[in-house]
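assembly run, all chains below
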Amino acid sequence: MRLLDACSRVPVDATPVWLMRQAGRYLPEYRAIREKLSFVEMCMRPDIAAEVTLQPLRRFELDAAIIFADILLPLEPMGIGFHFTPEDGPVIEKPIRSARDLEGVHGIDAAADLQYVMDAIRLVRHELGGRAPLIGFSGAPFTLASYIVEGGHSRNYAYVKEFMYDDPVGFGRLMSLISDVVVDYLLAQIAAGAQVVQLFDSWVGWLGPYDYELLVLPHVRYVIDKLKGRGAPVVYFGNGASAMLHLVAKAGSEVIGVDWRIELDRAWEQLDGVAIQGNLDPLTLLGPPKAIEERVADIIRRAGGRPGHIFNLGHGLIPQTPPDNVKYLVDAVHRLSAAPI
Amino acid sequence: MRLLDACSRVPVDATPVWLMRQAGRYLPEYRAIREKLSFVEMCMRPDIAAEVTLQPLRRFELDAAIIFADILLPLEPMGIGFHFTPEDGPVIEKPIRSARDLEGVHGIDAAADLQYVMDAIRLVRHELGGRAPLIGFSGAPFTLASYIVEGGHSRNYAYVKEFMYDDPVGFGRLMSLISDVVVDYLLAQIAAGAQVVQLFDSWVGWLGPYDYELLVLPHVRYVIDKLKGRGAPVVYFGNGASAMLHLVAKAGSEVIGVDWRIELDRAWEQLDGVAIQGNLDPLTLLGPPKAIEERVADIIRRAGGRPGHIFNLGHGLIPQTPPDNVKYLVDAVHRLSAAPI
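ok done. output:
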C-alpha cells in the first residue's frame, strides 16, 4: 500500500494522501450523527467511531484511514477529569499547575481502560480489508501536558511555561508520566491493528527551540524509542515547529509531519533519512480549484519525486471546508504526482 | 546611540535592548492611567501617549522608546470604523470581504489625520533629549488587511485567505491601498521625529511561503522601498515567519525582527547584510531569574558578537509580566553582552 511504502521511502506509483481531520464536521454524514450524539459519545461507541472513520474513504480516494478519537481520551483513566463545552472546547476540571497537583494522577492500562478505541480499530481494519492502511494516534507529551496544565485551549501557554520555568524537575515528572501513558496507548493501538501511528504535537510551536530541546524533546524521543520495531512506523507532527525541524528530527521518527509554514524542499534539505508528510495550508481548501491546483503543484514540485513523500495538510481541515474541494485536492495529488516531473 | 549603531551594524559596547509592548498593562503606573481613560483615548491624547511611552524608560535601562499607539489608528481616517470591546479586543464595524466592499475606503493624510500621533512623537523626542532614540511603527499591509477583512482577531484567518484565493486581484487592490497608507503614516512619523520605524507583521505567520511570496511580499517591499533614504532605518518583524526568513529578507529592510521559534544563529545564517532583532520568548519573563538568565545567555551566545544584534522579545510582553523580571532581563542583556564572549 502506497502509504506504508512511502513511510519506508520505497518508490510508489503516485504520492499517497490523507488529511488531518478528514473525518469531521465538514461532512454532512458526520454532522447527521453528531446531531444525535455528543463528541465524546461518538468516540466511546466503537460502531460510531468506526463509521465516522470510514466516511471520508467512501467519498474520496484517500490512501489511509485514521481512527476517529480525541487526543484527550487517555486523561480520564489517568485520573484527570474533563468535559467538552457545547462548542466542543475541552475543559480540564482540575488543571495541574505544580508537582503537588500530580497526586492521584497515574498510568493507565490502555487495552482495558480505552478498550472502546481498540474495538473501533478492530472494526475499521475488518471493514477496510486491505483497501487502505489504518493510522492510530495520540497527543504527544507536551501537547497533552499543555491541556492538562492550561485547563483547555490557551491563548499563550502561560501556565505551562510558568510551570516549566519554576519547577523543571516537577514538570519533567508530569511529562514522564504522560510519556508512559502515550507509549502504552499507542502499543495497544498497534496490537489492535493500527498500521501507522501519529504523534500530534499540536502546540509545541509555542515553545522556542531552547525549551523544546531541554524540556520536551527527550520525552518525545523516549516515546518513539519504545515504539521502534513494534511493526508500525511513527509519524511525528510538530505544529508550528518548522523553524526547528533539525531538533524535531532528533526525536527519531520514521516520518516527520511538517506544517504549512515552510517550503517543502527547504524542510527536506534539513532532514536526512526520513519520510516527510505535508504540507498544504488547510485554508487553501476554501479557495477555487485553480488556487488549490497551483498550491498542490508547488508542493509536489518541491517534493521533487523523492521517495517518502506523504501528502497531507499542514494542520487539520476546518469545518467550513467544501467536500468537493477535498475531492479535487485528493485527485490532484494523485494526478500531479503520477505525471512525469 | 547603541540602537542606531546596531541598525547600521556598527559595533557597540553592549547589545541594545528594547521590548515589544514595553509600555503596557504590566506596569502599575500604566494601569493607573488606563483606569481613567479608554485605550483609544490614551492613544489620542498626545500628553498621555508621551507619558506612557516614557514610563518604562524611567524604570529600566532600555536603549529605545517606542511611541505608544495602536496599529489600527489609521483605519478611521481610511473610512473604516472600529472600536474596542471592554477586553480591548478590536472590532471592525464593516469588515471588507470583497473588492466591492472597498467603496468609500480611501488614502489618508497622516500628518493631519493622525496629528495626535505626530504630536506625541514630538513631545517624546523633546522629553528624551538624546537619552535614547524613539521608534515609530505601523502594522504591515497583511496584518492590517487581516484585521480589516476578519473584523478583529481571528482563529484561523479564513476570511482573509478566502478573499486572497477567490479574488487575488481585488485583494491586491486592498493591499495596495493599505501600503500607501502605511508609507504616508511612517513618513509622517519620521518627519515628526521617529528615528527608527518598525513594521509589525503580527499575523503573517498564518500564511504559507507560497501565498506570502505571491500576494504579500511585493507590498511589503513597496513600503520599504518608499522609506529608504528617509533617515530612519526600517525594522520588519514577521511574527511566525521564522521558517521563511529568506523570503522575509527579500522585503529589503535594514533590520529583521525574528520571533522566538528559531535559534538566533540559524536565523542569522540565512540572512545577509542585515541587523537582527530578537528573540526571547516573552513568556520567559514569567520564570525566575535563573531561567531568564540561561535563555538570555543562550541568545547572546548565538549572536556570537556579530555587530547588528538588537535584543528584543520574539513577541510582545504579556500583562502578567512582573516588572522586576523586566529589569532583570534588561540588565542581564547589557551585562552578558558587554563581557568578553
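Residues 97 and 163 of chain B are 6 Å apart (CA to CA).

The longest strand of chain B covers residues 134-139.

not gonna interpret more than that til we talk
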